[in-house]
Each structure stands twice: as structure tokens, then as C-alpha cells.
Amino acid sequence: MQIGTKVLPWQGKFQTSLNFFCFHVGLSNSPPMRSSRSFVVDFALKVFAPSFLAATAIALFLLYLINGIFEEANRLDRAFAQRTAESVVLTLRGDAARAAETGSTGIGGASFLVDKSGRTLDATVNGQRSGLTASDYFGRNLATLLEGGDPLFLLSGSDIALAAGEPRGENRLIAATRITADRLRTLSRQFALDNLRFDVPGEDGVAILSALGSAVATLRWSDRLPGDIARQKYRHIVTAALTGFMFVVGLLIYMSWRGFKDAHESKARAIAASVTDGLTGLPNRRSVLALMGAALRQTCGEPALSVLYANLDGFKEVNDAYGREIGDRLLKATAAGIAFLTQGRHVAGRCGGDEFAVLFEGHDHRHDALRFATHVNDFLAAPMVFDGRVASVSASIGIAHADGASADAEELLRRADIAMYAAKENGRNRMQVYEPALEFQREDNRSIASELRGAIDQRRLGVVYQPIVDARTRRITGVEALVRWPFESDRTITPDIFIPIAEEYGLIESLGFFVLCEACAAAKHWDGITLSVNASPVQFMNPAFAELVQRALDETGFDPMHLEIEVTEGVIIDNAQRTQAIIDQLHKMRVSVVLDDFGTGYSSIGHLRRFKFDKLKLDRSMVQDILHKPASLRLVQGTIAMADALGLRVTAEGIEDESQIAVLRLAGCSQFQGYLFSRPVDAARIARLLNPPETALAEWPSRSVKF
Length: 707
Ligand code: C2E
Ligand code: CA
Ligand code: CA
Prior knowledge:
It contains 23 helices and 24 strands. By secondary structure, the chain is of the alpha/beta class. The two termini are 52 Å apart.
């Protein structure tokens, strides 16, 4: 089975559900679909709208400014033209004054010589002497004209005329000149005022007022409007400039969009990375906790959530033996398998290292979690092969169901973790549901560990020795060193309890080394006796194990030929290659290796063939059954025969009954160990048992020997 490298069909679906969860628990700002939408809105609000509005405002402002300049040009020109037109009026007045001075009034003009009283002395109208009086011609204006002052505008028929009076001796000449179209055209050219004309009185232009102040006409002209001309001229340039400006703004907005998108994507990636485990792609611990929190918050009443916490047994060994790459592939494969088993219905996450969590919601959550644990164990039961290397792991699984008191994600996960530890302590590859008693056990273990640390440091541990006798002569040929912890209180803590604790709390190395040194130092004085010392898998797998054994031998001066190291099959299961390497190292040092507890757990004849053990110890459970279970007897007989064929000696443990001896001897067992011969006793007692050495143990009242 090589699923580690496969991309499984459910992964996409799972990822979607992860994203969905992330959104719901606030780990991610939004799920992917909503995310892109909100991202567009975000961009529109934060970048596009402000940039677009600012650019439009700038463009409008520039247009307004340019327009203002044009309008100002128009206005200035108009003001200038106004003043120019006023000069035109002055010029016309000058014309009239000159006409009065010279008497030459031109076509349509008239001149009247009047005395002081206003009586007309002479009249010329349109170049002909006339009988008209000045009073007839000028009407009420005459009085003003007689007084002198500025020339006056008057209406002469449909034309505008100007009248002015000049003294002529005692009298006065009053002349009226008609402002002809020609004159206006000349003035139009002279003063650069287009289409200069008299118009009906009105708002703009220069008002032409009569002597009485009423508007006679308005002098008008056509504005040149240079601003409008410039506007026309530069229209295309301004349009092109504004288009260019908006294009640049558009380009900047587009570039911001790209930058914004990149930033958004990297943010999204960072969020995804912060909630997913990089190796397996599963949600990480943080996200598992958040998902649990969300699930717990959603439930009203009794929370419907169970959490399964799985730790791989033997992962470390695979990692150590085959390297990290295979270790990673194993984790990926396990993650893939677990996620596959969820069938998209439950959330699976990796909480770090070789620990996985699966969450179960809904009214069947308890049952689902329990069933899932079996599926995980079944799935892991088949070894995985990576590049031809077999990695076999199992899982210790803890399950915690949410209840009122554990309505907190951290607490629930902690409980599942405690249950998982209990499963591990109870022998791995199993499942344990959390119960409060485990807390005490855990607490108890912790205090045992701390006391044990003190006992090791202060060398308060003891070592006892259980004789191993020759099956034929019943003479002591060896002893097994067994650690003891003399406790001050009434409580006795047996090795079965404190050895696993020492393993878990990292004390086994120092404990093991202490026993080894102590036993070697004692056994050195027992001539020809083989010393068996137990080594836990944790010790045995330590790369420095052989070195430590050598150190103990050097320090005590014990003969390596007489030393046997007992290991259990757990060592092989967890790490086959390493086991053989360490056996080889020990053999080089001439230390023997014994396979202990054969017949329990994973016992396999295959292991006997494959590994170069020197001796085999049949476990007490196997030995106990031989008298009343024919199948057990046959198994023992077969095992011994096989061991014999492989050149292995066999020791039977736990012999309590004389009748067991006969059967086992017949089967070919070469050594016995058990209460029938002796319980484990202290070194002094062993020394006495060996002296005289020819004493056969079976004759002794061994049951009375107590430590
Ligand atoms: P083990 O290696 O299988 O050791 C044999 C155990 O069986 C000893 O228990 C011994 O007292 C007991 N035993 C021997 N003969 C009989 C018998 O006839 N009947 C019964 N009922 N029991 C018998 P102990 O000393 O309690 O040790 C238990 C286990 O603790 C050992 O099993 C071994 O796995 C571990 N252990 C003990 N000392 C050490 C040590 O120094 N280092 C390590 N790593 N493990 C140790
Ligand atoms: Ca043993
Ligand atoms: Ca044993």
C-alpha cells in the first residue's frame, strides 16, 4: 500500500470544507468564494473609488481652470473693448466739437448761428441755407447747447447725431453732425472694434445718453472673445491631455489592482498557512482548536462534540531508522488515510509531530468517534511500504466527549490527550475513552516520576537477582537482575508500574545504567555465572546503548562473555534494521542478546530467524498454559524445536510447578527460572546460594526466600 504520494480524490472536497470551517471560526477573513467578492469590494472602496474620484476631481478642476482662463481672456477683452468704445464716443464728441468750431457739419449735418437770447441768426441744413430755427431743430436741447459744455447726442430721424456749441464773437454757432455709417466703419477699423454700430438702448455696450439723461442708443460692437478662440484652438490638445491623464490614472489603478491582488493573495496564503499543517495539508492544532471552539459555541444545551486524539506508536523509530523523508511520507500517508476515513463527514487535523485529531459532531458523535478509532487501527494494521522499506506503526487513541464541564476546546483536547496517554501506557495500539480516573492516574504517574527521579539520583534503588538454573542439573548458571524500589511508605511500586513511567518521563536511561552497573559490580564476584540485565526498547534504541554497556563493563571490570541483555519483541516491531545493528554491536563486544517474553504480543518465529539472538525466554503466560492447554503445549514444543534448529538456547520463565519442568525438559528447554527455584533475592543471598555451588536449588525452601 503506497498511498503516501497519491493525491486522493477527497482532498479537494476536504480542502473546501476546511476553508469553509476557517471562515466559520474566524480563522480566515472569508471563505474563498466570498473572499474574491469581498476583495473586489475592498479594492473598489479602498483604491478604485478614491483614486477615480480624486482623478476626476483633478480633471474637472483643470477643466474649470482652463475654462476660467479662457473666460478671463474674454472678460479682459470685453473690458478693454468697453474702454475703447468709450474712446470712440470721445472721438465722436471731438468730431462734433470740431464741426462746431469749423462750421463744417458734413452730409446730413446742420449749423445755426444764434444770439445770446437764442434767436436764430443764420441756419444751414444739409449744406443749404434754411429757414429752420435752432429751437425747431434742437428743441429742448437748445438751452443746454447755449450754455456750452460737452457735445450732446440727439436723435436725428433714425440716425444719431451730435450737437455742440462754440462761441462766435457775441453769438454762438451750434452745429449738429450726423454719425454716418462710414464714420462708424472708419472708427471700427481705427479702434479695432468689429461691427461697431448704434443699437437700440440696452444693457451692454456704451449707453448714448441725451442731454436729459435718457438713453438715445447704445454703441455696440461684436466681441472678439479671444478666450473662445483659444478654447476652440486648444480644444483637441486639452481633450488629449485629459484623456492621457485619465489613462495614466487608469494605469495606476490597474497597477494598484495588481499589487492589491498580490497582497491579497499572499495574505490569503499566509492565513491558509497559519491554519493548515504544511506537511499534510490538514488543519493544524490552532485551527482544530478553533473548529472545536466554534462547534462548542454553536451547540445549545449539551454539546454534541467528540474529539479523537491519535498518536502513532513507533513513528519515532521509523523516523530514526529510515530518515526524515520516509518519516514525512509516513505522516502524509497516515494523514491521507485518516482524512479518507472521515469521508468528508468529520474534520481531521494534525496537532503536531505524529499526533492527529478528528472531530465528531452531531447526535451520533460518541458512537462515530468509537467506530472511527477501530477504523484507524485497522487502517494502520497494514504496514506501509516506502521505496521498499516497510514501516509499521499503530496508533494509541484517546477519545473525549464534550460535556457541560468540558465545554472548552483546550480542555476537551487535553482530556483526549490524557486518554491517549493512558492508551499508550496500557500497551499501545488501542483506544481509551477519557474518564476522570485517568486524571488521577496521570497525576499519580507524575508524582511517581518525580519521586523516581530523586530515587535514581540518590541511588536509592535496589537490584535483586533471580537465579536461572540448568534444566538438567538444576544448578544456578545465571541470574536475572531485577530492579527494586524500596518505598518508605506502605505502598509497593513494582517495576511493571514504574518502568513504563520511567520510559515516559525520560528516566529509563539513567535507571537502566544504574541497574547495569550495580548488577555487573555484584555479579563480578559470582564465578562463572551469567548475568541477564533487562533493557527497555527505549534504552535499546538509543544509538549510544552499546557504548553505555561498554562503559558499565569498563567501570566494573565485568566479563562481557557473562553478560546477557534481555530485550522484548517490541524492539523489533518498532524498528527492525536498528535492532540488528545494535545486536551486531553487542556481539562485537561479546555481549549476548536474549529475546525476552516470547509468546506475548507480536511473537513471531520469523523474528527468530531474522535476528541473531543468542537465547529465547518463553514467557510465563506460555509456560502456565502448557499443562491444561494442549495447543499451548504444541506451540511451546514447536517454538523450542525451531529455536533448537536455529541454535538458540531456551529459558522457560515463571516456573512455579514441578510438573511444568518435566514437560519443558522433554520439549528441549535448557534453562528454568521461576519461584519454584527462587524468587528474586538480594546479592548477598545469591552469594550464599552459590556457595557451595553444587547445591541444587530445588532442594531449598525457595518460597520462604523473600526480599
Ligand atoms: P521480566 O523481565 O519478564 O522479569 C521477570 C518478572 O517475572 C520479574 O518481575 C520476576 O519477579 C517475575 N517472576 C519470576 N519468576 C516468577 C514466577 O515463578 N512466578 C511469577 N508470578 N512471577 C515470576 P519483576 O521483577 O516485578 O519485573 C517485572 C518486569 O519489569 C520485568 O519482567 C521486566 O520487564 C521489568 N524490569 C524489571 N527490572 C528491570 C530493569 O532493571 N530494567 C528494565 N528495563 N526492566 C526491568
Ligand atoms: Ca527479563
Ligand atoms: Ca520475561
